[in-house]
Every structure is written in structure tokens, then in C-alpha cells.
Design brief:
It is built from two helices and five strands, in the order ββαβαββ. The longest helix is centred in the middle third of the chain and has 12 residues, at about 65-80. The chain has helices spanning about 40-45, 65-80; strands at about 5, 20-25, 50-55, 85, 100-105. It has a three-stranded parallel beta sheet with strand order 3-4-5, with no helix packed on it. The protein has a two-stranded parallel ribbon with strand order 1-2. The protein folds into two domains: about 1-30, no CATH class; about 30-110, Rossmann fold (3-Layer(aba) Sandwich), CATH 3.40.50. The chain is elongated. By secondary structure, the chain is of the alpha/beta class. InterPro entries: UDP-glycosyltransferase, UDP_glucos_trans. This is Ecdysteroid UDP-glucosyltransferase. It comes from Culex pipiens (House mosquito). Pfam families: UDPGT. Keywords: Glycosyltransferase, Transferase.
Amino acid sequence: SLVLINQYFTKTAARPYVQAMVEVGGLQIKPVPDPLPADLQEWLDGATDGVIFFSMGTNLQSSTIPAEKLQALVATFGKLKQRIIWKWDLEDIPNKPANILLKNWLPQDD
């Protein structure tokens, strides 16, 4: 048997392994990343004050966020000078500021 572990020893704490355990961290990394979608690249290129990527993962559905918490996030993000890329699975957010870009899917390895 052989166990391949997706980590690299310099990035984790020391731990004992048996001989059949091999760290192979980074195998999924592409030598050259794919180009970003044009609209996303344009959004990033136009960000003079930087960009914040905000995602709550796939376990949280956008429709389950209470309206008052959603508006608190929107109001807070709207006060920032950075552009916000928000992974969001609904079409739009009420009162969305111009500095927020909503996407239901975003490349995370490019």
C-alpha cells in the first residue's frame, strides 16, 4: 500500500510517517495558469486600490443569509476603497455598491 499526502513538510508541523506515506504537495499546481475570464481580468486590472476576494464556500447558500446580516456585509464592503469579488450564488443583492462584483463561480487555481 501507498498513501500520497497532499501537503509539503515545510508547510506543516513535524509528524511521524511510515515508509508507505509520501508527501506530494503541489502536484495539482499548473506550471502556467490558465487565463482568467475576460470580465474578471478587466475588473482586477481596473482596481487601483486592490481587490478583496470574499467567499463563504459552498456549504453556505446565499439565500440562507438573513437580510440584516447581508445588508451589514453590503454596507461594510461599500465603505471600502478596494474592489470586492464576492462568490455569490444568486443573481443580485439589493443596494449593491459599484465596488462589488458578484460571481457564482470563480477560478481559484489560476
